[in-house]
């Protein structure tokens, strides 16, 4: 039944109005808002972002107005627009509420038809206020009136901006808000310059000075609260000179900070260390000779904002053309990549998800991508010479540099994130880009209401906001890659997802070069091949490649990575799981790109063991790459080989498992998932398993009907014996045998020699896999000695004829394969020689030192740099290992803990026994770890064994990343390597040299 026309709506309860503070009923009574006439007004109040805060501010405003309160109260009953503006701004901004209470008559600015003044009107208003203020040379009382004027203008803009949250007022577009704030900043800067000039110069002559707006102000997309980046340009052609101009500039910055906002001149040439004011000629000279890429990127936003208009115009005309040639600079790519890294490192990982500006999928991602595309293509397309991010997205879409839909979506996401940034800053007029803590539901409720977010029937307002934030962040991250790479796919003739034609081939090559691809033409060929595949494969590649290329561009060698990706994709063209895994498992795709763009060693393994790619996924307890247990893998390898009667087929099965395990270990290593000691242990375990499998296979094939004539054990030497193998290490071994039963020793030895030779030959069969080279050069008498000896023969030899180098070699002897009991007896026999009672003789120590000196003088390869050769260089592996082994020879008879074949374990024992100071032990340990990591990384990066670190460049950057440096900054990695090894060499000279 319809209500009678005279019946008023009933007064809503406090709870229904969303007022939760206990004092709310008393506050309503105090305002007189407790009659049926106030129902509409109260419902308007309830729609404020924070109704309690708005109500409290209204009570304070009523007290401040005194007798004038009734006028405002009456206006509120009839002026819905005033209600929307006033309740909206008071519920959004505590700071502007405080301003309104301090200046209660300013409410009148929000009544009636409110229009935002133009830039010209703002400038006239502020200039008039500055000229009206009482200013004498050296003093000024202009701060309070100009500060109040600035806050009044902020109040009006904010009220119009948020009015739609309360009443059905039009939503103010983001670009309008940013432009008006920038116009307001221009007017304020002009006023500050006027005041500063009168303070410094009085009635005397004034210097020519132009203020150039940079950053968001230059682009006319300023925040409510932001530092305003500026640059000063002066003129020394007439009095007063630059000294006076510098004083005026400094005073204008101080005044602006007191009255309006922080003016920041750190973007000037040489930054905070540079002159505050330079002439135009000085600016031109600096940018021509010294400026970095980031400074040209900053100039994209440069705009004359205040001061001398002719000087400002001359500055823009002289410097802006330089912006559009910046991408041709030799270091453009490396500097752009370094800028991206610095931005990412600015935000602690714990708050990255809350950072609107610098977090993943945040505002900086959008701005950086847009600016890079402008720099790359702006020289050839003047339509890109715009300053605003939104305008740039529009022209980039219109020019085919990004998809039109992508441009529209990125613009929407950017404006949404900027809206949230504005609301967060409005609350207390503080500079912030940080979302509330995820557990703060009330803060999210307020932010949702302030940003026009409403419940959707499934979630309340804060729930909708949280979901929208996730969606927008994911969309920005996805589009960030598409902005760069989707048009590249279109340029090779593969329009994707219904988007129009892409950029030209030349533009595509420019863009790939700017993104780090040194061979852009080859890269385009690879893209054409990948996306030109028929049917499903081509379509999936079109979807995948924008993101994959983005990840590849962050690797040290994206060209090699893209080629490797093409080869693997073509090899696995018929494997449906491959592209499905990359599409559905983001972690797999990202890790694969990091590996392919860093390592030449791993792609060759993945070509023949592609199932390892599936291990890049995350399992219940972390990456599946870590699920391999070395002992279990070794057992499986030996068992697999043992299922084949033919030794060649058996070792082929062993090679397949070894290949898979090498790919797994190396991938986990490059991705930073394994410690160095775990890597060395796993590599040793797989080598030992291959040796055992080969030995078993050959013995099975050569066992006579009467049974095996001898038992054989394989003794690991060098790094194999110490379980410290690297990717490029050979297997240093010795073979020991013992007759079985009453077999003649000569028969047993002859049979054992045949077995050993077949094992070496079997493992040495040419293969595409990393080689399996067995080195027997450390046996008694070296390469001239018998290939196999009996245990008794070894014992006699070492007791009577052992040379110091042979005794030293025994320090790392450890049984690794074959007959376990025989191997253990060999170790016990070796203990008598390597750990003799009383230690080795002084003569033996001198001989070892002599041999080491000869190695240092003769073994370093011709042309190698002795400072960066990881094995034989200064403070390298040989230095550390010879020093440790000399201490073992001298003191192992006293310190049982030194009876270890591991360099690291021996170092621990040396420190514990205080044979060397703990500080020196730490230096030796750090050098050994650093050199071993570098040596392993060299193989991973180059794909073949090498000991020499490369010079500065992409290869050194890749080595740094593969060595676990934490970034691909090869310069920093090399500096650290040189520092560590230099300090270790000092210890070596002191300890090894006596």
UniProtKB/TrEMBL annotation:
Organism (species): Mycobacterium dioxanotrophicus
Cofactors named for this entry: Mg(2+)
Gene: glnE
Keywords attached to this entry: ATP-binding, Magnesium, Multifunctional enzyme, Nucleotide-binding, Nucleotidyltransferase, Transferase
SUPFAM superfamilies attached to this UniProt entry: Nucleotidyltransferase, Nucleotidyltransferase substrate binding subunit/domain
Record-listed E.C. numbers: 2.7.7.89, 2.7.7.42
CDD domains (alphabetical): NT_GlnE_GlnD_like
The keyword Cytoplasm belongs to this UniProt entry's keyword annotation: no
Pfam families listed in its UniProt record: GlnD_UR_UTase, GlnE
UniProt signal peptide: none
Origin: domain of life: Bacteria
Gene3D superfamilies associated with the record: Beta Polymerase, domain 2, Nucleotidyltransferases domain 2
Catalytic activity: [glutamine synthetase]-L-tyrosine + ATP = [glutamine synthetase]-O(4)-(5'-adenylyl)-L-tyrosine + diphosphate; [glutamine synthetase]-O(4)-(5'-adenylyl)-L-tyrosine + phosphate = [glutamine synthetase]-L-tyrosine + ADP
Domain PII-uridylyltransferase/Glutamine-synthetase adenylyltransferase residues, every copy: 338-484, 852-991
GO cellular component: cytosol
A GO term, aspect molecular function: magnesium ion binding
GO BP annotations listed: regulation of glutamine family amino acid metabolic process
Enzyme class per UniProt: transferase
Name listed for the protein in its UniProt record: Bifunctional glutamine synthetase adenylyltransferase/adenylyl-removing enzyme
Ranges where the Glutamate-ammonia ligase adenylyltransferase repeated domain occurs: 85-315, 590-827
Region (Adenylyl transferase) residue spans: 498-994
Region described as Adenylyl removase: spans on this chain: 1-488
InterPro entries assigned to the protein according to its UniProt record, in alphabetical order: GlnE, GlnE_rpt_dom, NT_sf, PII_UdlTrfase/GS_AdlTrfase
Function recorded in the entry: Involved in the regulation of glutamine synthetase GlnA, a key enzyme in the process to assimilate ammonia. When cellular nitrogen levels are high, the C-terminal adenylyl transferase (AT) inactivates GlnA by covalent transfer of an adenylyl group from ATP to specific tyrosine residue of GlnA, thus reducing its activity. Conversely, when nitrogen levels are low, the N-terminal adenylyl removase (AR) activates GlnA by removing the adenylyl group by phosphorolysis, increasing its activity.
Family (UniProt): Belongs to the GlnE family.
